[in-house]
Amino acid sequence: MHCILFLLYLFVTAVIGHMQLFYPPPFNASNNPHLQGSADEFLQFPYNCCGRQTPFPCRGYLDLLGTDAGAPVATWSAGSNQSWSMTGIGNHWGGSCQVGFSIDNGETFQVAASYPGNCPHRLNGDGPTGQEFNFTVPADIPSGEAIFAWTWINREQEFNMNCAAINITGPDSSSAAFSVPYSQRPGLLIADTGNGCWSPKTTAEVLYPNPGPDVIEGDNVYTLEKPYPPEACGY
């Protein structure tokens, strides 16, 4: 009986278990302090899952910018070391993630950091305390309101993206120097959304063709492969 229940648990998490951004709290999340009304119960599900067409980018929540519900949830200084975290009910034994920013209301997104492999952390469960990742805010990103974006591609060719409003302040004396200007950083990889770009499946995790200057390597449990075809994936 215990074996059957365990197998049932594995099946359920494979079907419905996914992850979402926890910190900074994304638009319309249950932990967003500016939430108006009901939280989005589908934030952890991949794009276009479950018979629902998911608006791109940021799951269609960019219309909250400039409203109380879309107010910044954190203040970060340019060049500072920060962290972000995930939560959910199934980490899919890893994948690959990117985080980045938009300073033009979601028209474009530039990479801040790439995490090829072991993202989420395979062995750290599903809660935010075990799924925290560090990165550096680009030192020359302009001050003002920006959109922080998190993307995750698992080994089932599924893509998810959550976004949060962040207030960016000028760099302080401890801020790191930048190696690549923010304006010259690559865009986030978008795959598995019906855009013609596909990630590898099952036996490999995504190797980002344009990862940007800050790359946090995984654990090498799975091989890393680039998405395909190159012309549809921007490289």
Automatic annotation (TrEMBL):
Coiled-coil regions listed: none
From the UniProt annotation, give the residues forming the signal peptide. Answer: 1-17
TM spans (from-to) = none
Lineage: superkingdom: Eukaryota
What are the alphabetically sorted keywords of the record? Answer: Monooxygenase, Oxidoreductase, Signal
GO molecular function of the protein, one example?
A: monooxygenase activity
PANTHER family the UniProt entry points to: PROTEIN, PUTATIVE (AFU_ORTHOLOGUE AFUA_6G10930)-RELATED
| Protein name, UniProt field | Lytic polysaccharide monooxygenase
